[in-house]
Amino acid sequence: MSVLRRYLARMKGGGRAPARPPRRDLLLAGTGGCLAIAAVAWLSLRAGVPALMAPLGASCFLAFAVPDSPLAQPRHIVGGHLVASAVGLAVLQVCGGAWWAQALAVGLAISAMLATRTGHPPAGADPLLVFALQPGWDFLLAPVLPGSLVVALVALAFNNLRPQAAYPKYW
């Protein structure tokens, strides 16, 4: 039997997808994400400082859809984005914008986030954003720090409105 057939046979008899969450949870998760990005966008506009970046949308998924996950804790949201972006900036500065430098930056960012206990999957995209934009070190001060802080703070406020909520699980 070919490798593909064995894989498909396993998948066919494999587990089922998880049940759909209750409508209330769907609405709360979507509302939380909407409020967090709205807050980042509004504050960015008011302060005249760019604070929006695409990976924050993915951070919102974790923060509001699975707030009990270790990956959704404020330490991971803020720290992960800061660490991964700093790694991206350092690799860009040392190695230039080559394709292999982008790959190296993502790999080093993953290792650095794990080493600092700030693993946050959306932040894995930050080095690629750094290479696309080629910003200076002030990129850490805007948009990374304010954007990730606002998402974490909205998650702190919003997630604790839920019954039996206790967010964050740790700092």
From TrEMBL:
InterPro entries membership: HPP, TM_HPP
Signal peptide range in chain numbering: none
Keywords: Membrane, Transmembrane, Transmembrane helix
Membrane-crossing residue ranges in chain numbering: 26-43, 49-66, 78-101, 139-161
Keyword Transmembrane helix among record annotations: yes
Domain HPP transmembrane region residue range list: 19-168
Name of the protein in its database record: HPP family protein
Organism for this UniProt entry: Azotobacter bryophylli
Lineage summary: Bacteria, Pseudomonadati, Pseudomonadota, Gammaproteobacteria, Pseudomonadales
